[in-house]
Write a structure and sequence with these properties.
Blueprint: H1 5-10, H2 16-26, E1 35-36, E2 39-40, E3 43-45, E4 51-58, E5 63-67, E6 74-75, H3 77-85, H4 89-99, E7 133-136, E8 147-149, H5 151-160, H6 163-170, H7 175-185, E9 188-190, E10 193-195, E11 203-206, E12 209-214, H8 220-228, E13 235-240, E14 247-252, H9 260-275, E15 290-291, E16 299-300
Helix pairs in contact: 2-3, 3-4
Amino acid sequence: MALTEQEILMNTNYGLDIYAHILREFYPDETVINLKGRETRPSKNPFTGDSLTLVFEEISNQFFYKDLVKTDFLGNPFQFAEMHFKKSGNDLLEIIVQSLNLRIGKKRNKFPLFLKQESEQKPLLFPVAIPRFSLFHAPVTNTIPARELSLKEVYELILNEYEPQTTQLRNISDKKESRAFKAKNFNYVTFSGTFSSRKDEALIKHSGYLALDFDHLGDFDALKTALLNDPFFETELLFRSPSGDGLKWIISIDITQNTHQEWFLAIKNYLETTYHQKVDSAGKDVSRACFLPNDTQIFINPKHLQ
């Protein structure tokens, strides 16, 4: 199957990961991209003598680059990659896929801890149900759900809503005050299922989703790229935490084979060993609350938009 620019954009956070990968080649020990809203703060430009004048802006689901001083230095991710890799056409697309370890057109491996003999697949004779989970309105002390959501619906909320409280939270430096503000002002969901109230024993139906939290990240972009290309788990949803320094990663699990807690502990151990990043242990609770921020760069698996 021939590679397309659109496929690569959908698997690289609209091209932002391509820029980040190339810039890390020049500045391996630095934070190369600092995103705020739909535009980044100035980064070093390796093609203009390392001047701090390179910015990226998301327009119609693609990040374009420009230099604040050299006004004719502008273009799209593939033009930027062409300058670095010295290739064009399909050769360029192939080296981008190879360099970023993108899994376009490839199947995920079976997670080894829960590897089982697969039975013969039978054709489905009825529509597949879309997994649902519960939405709760702020404050966090409210434990009665407002309604049920799908991944696509929560994606649209995070993409388009909650900007005022997210911005205000990220401007609060005091940790105690920050926690109190978040608890009072952010709606939240229980990604792992629908509930009559927010407690494990009130679970109505498990969604088949598991939410994993990474807090206080150093290289945010590197972990985001790694998770999107993990060989065992396909990303369903991936977005920045309300505080701005963490990630929320939503993946699918098969609870007919193992319990929610067994999956969580096994995956937590795998992630911490593989990526050397601490995973919040609260994810072992089926009723784990996940606050909804605003993130205009949220990633959703394209299958959920079809």
